[in-house]
Amino acid sequence: MSTKPARPARASGLDALPTRDDEGRWLAVIEATQGTRHKFKYHAGSDAFVLSGVLPLGLGFPYDFGFLPSTLGDDGDPLDVLVLADEALPLGALAPVRIVGVIEAEQQEKGGRAERNDRLLAVTDPSHRYRGCRALADVAKNVLDEIERFFVVYNQAKHVRFTPLARRGRAAAERLVRNGQRRFGERSARAD
Description:
This protein is of the alpha+beta class. It has a single domain, classed as Inorganic Pyrophosphatase. Helix content is 20%, strand content 33%. It is built from 2 helices and 9 strands. The protein has helices spanning 141-156, 170-191; strands at 26-32, 38-43, 48-54, 64-67, 80-84, 94-109, 115-116, 119-124, 160-169. The strands form 2 sheets. It has a 5-stranded mixed beta barrel. It has a two-stranded antiparallel ribbon with strand order 2-3. A hairpin with a 4-residue loop joins β2 (38-43) and β3 (48-54).
C-alpha cells in the first residue's frame, strides 16, 4: 500500500493560494527547512504536510525549500523554489520572496524518461542578509555551485539522476512562473 496521498483533481488549500501577495511579492510555501533532513510534501486533499523522505545522515537542506502556489511545472507538481533567508523558516510558512533566477535542470528516475524539473531561486523579501540581492549575479558563484551539487546528491540518494542544464536570471525565472500559472489555470478549468 502506498503512503503517497492521491493528488486531488482540483487544487485547494495552500497550493491554490495566490502566487503573489497584495504588495506584488511572490509567495513561497516552505516544505523543508534549512538544515533539516526531513522532506515534507504538501497534500492539498488533507491540507497537511506529509513526510515524503529523509535525507541520508550528513546531508541536509542548505536553504529552505518549497513551492510557489497556483503554479504547475512540467512534472505536474507546483514549481519548486529554494529560498535564501536570514535563518530557517518553519515548515508551512508562507514567505514573501524576490525571485532572482532559476537553475534549469532535467530529472530522470531509473528506467524513466528525463523531464524538466527546474529550481527557482529566491530570497526572502524582508531580509537583512539578502537585502541587496536582486539578481542571480548577486548570488555568489560558489553558493550556486553548492546548490547544484546538493540537488545532484539529494536526487542520487533517491536513485534519480538530476542534471543541471543552465543558470538563468530573473526574466527567465519569471517566464517559467507565468507558464506554471497558465498550466495551473488550465488544470483548474478542466476540473470545474
